[in-house]
């Protein structure tokens, strides 16, 4: 389970501009996974929980992902639309079961005994039932009573708590910008409903969930609780993903920079045919991020043919073989011995490579945030709403450049245009 891999010193904070930006990017990835469209030029599909989308589709979605007139359609908005009637029904009329417990029962109301009660009775002094009942005229007996403390109702109560947290976080991020939008109002009403339902007397009898439960028959097949369980698992997945994005926040933001930089490279191409060729490459997008990245780089991103026979690449480079394959594909006379000095072992991360017939450069992207004080020294650091992108030359190990970019790159689709021009076109 995910919780076993989390460093307790690195638990995701309740509020963080970095997390807000990463969750916005996660929403972008979700929309790409869910938006499969027939395309006569490039095939699209979702094999093995990986969405195959063309670079052109991804960049088009990137440029139009930010909607200035509405907040994002997040999971909590859909829950606010679909769940109120179901939650009102199950919280107001929770499923009850008849349970048994042993308790002292007056002999005039005695109905049932089990083996434990009989053993208790034989140990009492006296010969008759009246004598054994003592001065209280009561004996240990089995009582039957109705209880709402069932697994399915524990899931309902936990879902209400998690929905309150999700709605509060969504409103914190967007209510001040879109106070009168229908989704904001609907989410606010949903939060108030969840708080009211959680405080109902019958749900106060329901105990909490110590861990993720295995669903029972009711959660899987009863119409009301089946919808509750499906929504509960969606909320759990999103909250686990939030923790994973925080743990791997630098790699996740590097993915954002990769898409933003490819968008800048595409926008800077004057040759339409060259742009179309790059846009036909496939990107494989995971439904669930792995170590912070949504991309499965089994299919490498495109190489961008810029001006003056210069080629640009941004993406993963694991070894010298990848670098040699990329650079030699353009006919450059590559000094393998010199290059191996910078790649003496496998390199993981995101790299920027640019080459032509006379030169080539390979730099690794390093991401820093406001809290990473050891990385942000030297240029005055960056604010809590910004990130520092550092390019480190793989040959010399020296810094080749530092650039401050906004955290929410989706809201600023042209924010890397200047960096692209300085690094690739100057």
UniProtKB/TrEMBL annotation:
It holds the Pfam family DUF2357. Residues 73-232 form the DUF2357 domain. This is DUF2357 domain-containing protein.
């Amino acid at each position: 389970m995910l919780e076993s891999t989390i460093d307790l010193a690195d638990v995701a904070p309740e509020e963080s501009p970095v997390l807000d930006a990463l969750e916005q990017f996660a929403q972008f990835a979700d929309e790409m996974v869910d938006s499969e469209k027939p395309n006569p030029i490039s095939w699209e599909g979702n094999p093995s929980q990986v969405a195959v989308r063309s670079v052109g589709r991804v960049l088009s979605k990137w440029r139009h992902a930010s909607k200035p007139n509405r907040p994002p359609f997040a999971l909590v908005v859909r829950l606010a639309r679909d769940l109120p009637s179901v939650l009102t029904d199950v919280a107001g009329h929770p499923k009850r079961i008849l349970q048994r417990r042993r308790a002292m029962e007056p002999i005039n109301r005695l109905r049932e005994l089990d083996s434990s009660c009989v053993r208790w009775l034989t140990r009492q002094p006296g010969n008759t039932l009246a004598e054994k009942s003592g001065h209280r005229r009561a004996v240990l007996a089995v009582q039957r009573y109705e209880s709402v403390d069932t697994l399915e109702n524990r899931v309902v109560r936990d879902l209400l708590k998690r929905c309150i947290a999700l709605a509060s976080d969504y409103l914190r991020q967007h209510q001040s910008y879109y106070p009168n939008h229908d989704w904001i109002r609907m989410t606010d009403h949903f939060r108030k409903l969840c708080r009211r339902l959680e405080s109902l007397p019958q749900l106060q009898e329901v105990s909490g969930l110590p861990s993720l439960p295995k669903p029972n028959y009711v959660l899987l097949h009863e119409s009301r609780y089946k919808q509750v369980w499906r929504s509960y698992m969606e909320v759990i997945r999103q909250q686990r993903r939030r923790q994973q994005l925080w743990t791997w926040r630098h790699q996740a933001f590097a993915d954002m920079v990769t898409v933003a930089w490819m968008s800048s490279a595409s926008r800077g191409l004057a040759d339409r045919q060259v742009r179309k060729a790059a846009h036909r490459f496939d990107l494989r997008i995971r439904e669930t991020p792995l170590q912070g990245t949504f991309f499965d780089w089994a299919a490498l991103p495109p190489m961008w043919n810029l001006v003056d026979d210069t080629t640009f690449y941004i993406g993963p480079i694991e070894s010298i073989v990848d670098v040699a394959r990329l650079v030699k594909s353009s006919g450059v006379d590559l000094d393998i011995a010199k290059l191996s000095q910078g790649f003496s072992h496998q390199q993981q991360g995101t790299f920027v490579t640019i080459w032509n017939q006379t030169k080539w450069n390979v730099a690794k992207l390093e991401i820093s945030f406001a809290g990473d004080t050891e990385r942000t020294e030297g240029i005055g650091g960056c604010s809590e709403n910004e990130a520092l992108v550092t390019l480190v030359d793989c040959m010399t190990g020296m810094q080749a450049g530092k650039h401050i970019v906004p955290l929410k790159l989706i809201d600023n689709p042209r924010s890397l245009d200047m960096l692209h021009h300085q690094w690739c076109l100057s």
